[in-house]
Design goal:
By secondary structure, this protein is mainly beta. Helices cover 8% and strands 35% of the residues. It is globular, with a radius of gyration of 21 Å.
Amino acid sequence: MPSSRSSKLVRVALAAAIAASGAIATTAVTVATATTAQAASSIGGQITRSEVLARAKSWVDAAVPYSQSSYHTDGSGTLYRQDCSGFVSMAWHINVSGTNNGFTTNSAVNYSTQLAGLDSLKPGDTINNINSHMVLFVGWTDSNHTSATIYEEPNSNSTARSRTMTRSEMTNGGFLPYRYNNIVDNAPTAPTRVGVYHPSTQVFYEGNNAGGTLGSAKFGNAGWVPLTGDWNGDGVDSVGAYDPSTGTFYESNDNSTTSGSAKFGNAGWKPLTGDWNGDGIDSVGAYDPSTGTFYLSNDNSTTAVTAKFGNPNWIPFAGDWNGDGKDSIGAYDPSTGTFYESNDNATVSGSATYGNPGWTPLIGDWNNDGIDSVGAYNPATQTFYLSNDNATTATSFVYGSAGDTPITGRW
């Protein structure tokens, strides 16, 4: 079981447990576009942390080049200068007048409040040396806060990017932590709920954790693996699918049309996705069942983490086991019905035996406390069993039909 508990609410939308393929597919690919990134807030108004990061990621995904004299749109027609401070002002949706962007590393302090220390940083805050450079804080990469994932327009002939910044680089480089005065924490999301997917019709049915249906949608093709996730940071999960023949993830923001896709991993590997770096946005991963190796990507392209965990042909999963806002890996031994969780993508931080062999493992934040716990699905009776403490059953109910695949998400 998780080694620690926290009341911090985070968005963890874990998706389908694929019994037939022996894989758990969790929250899937996010392809943040400039259009979806800028849609929620008004210029100069309040903005959530997830939207700040989505706006920033839209420039990272577009590889917007660094320039102190050129300007790029935020997707709504507002232009921002393509340097480090222009990048932050775009992400914060700062009020500017056309291309006369007076927001600089120095003037940024007029829009923000200095924090007590680096450990007070939250996603969407900035780390700023007012004389030279500023970056957006995404999340710490480790529990000791020795390094962090950041977004930036680098001071070089390069493009907007995501990279790791060490704590010593922050302190030795004269960087101080600041929080935008109009940034707000994301509203608490709904608890994780379960549903089912009909493979024969490619229809998703979203349940209410009491045997009822809240909605349905058809997406993907026959033979694809169903996925669900919050692809655009709006706090609501929508559907997706994974084509195992090509290793391609497809996601939808409207439960109908494809809003983005990404290819990652090799044929025969299992899809796995989650928020690996705590930026509030899910990215892809893949699991090689022949070696028990996980490959995790923060940009839906390159591999950021390679980790061997569990034994070959165990069932991979992911979740936030300690409430730190980041997903990490886990593995399920189907022969014993035992879940093994890792907080550092390396060592076992907790384990729990739940359900019976032959049942499908599930992961979700069933009580919305910010920490994921286990569940199980009996395909013979279409019965879901959900636990809030990784031991006892908090609720159970029948939902779906024989041959269905269980799914989970926040809808």
